[in-house]
Fold:
Amino acid sequence: MTDGADLGGMDLGGMDVAEVGTADTGTVDVGTVDVGTADVGAASRGGAAGGGLARRQEELVRALVAGAGVPAGFDAGAVAATQAALLRKRAEDVARTWPRLAASAGPGQWARMFSAWAAGRAPQGSLRDGWDYARAHPPRDAAAARELALRELLWAYDGETAPQPRRGPAARLHRGELLLRWRGRTLTYRPR
Structure:
């Protein structure tokens, strides 16, 4: 283009459009996968080609989040790097939902400890994942144990189905502190 180019009403002020491009952020080659030539129409109609692609996608998702083996044709190193990134992201999500539990792991240890536990387990959402982790590794830190006790006061979770908010009043004794849920509020009483 020429100087002073106009792109959709946006004046570039005499700047050559070639100068406006994007910054080079670098690229990472994670390999390529030959999934064959599939007719997109057949995939949407549920044809054989669509079934093969859907099956391969399902295998890849299982490998990434549920610990299944790397499907044939995929670069194992790239899949492992993606698994690690997804586990770190999952640990960050759980840490936002369970901040005291994450802090109880120690400085810089949460992502490593949670990822080791979560590898091979399908994600269930940050509330359930944190709850399952806390039940598998009971917190020794008082703040994290109280966080778990408060969640169990406010939510009903059996370890199988999604947590549901508790209805009606509830009480729980935690390390000498009485935790009450009454009319949507949480009250705590400590003996003097």
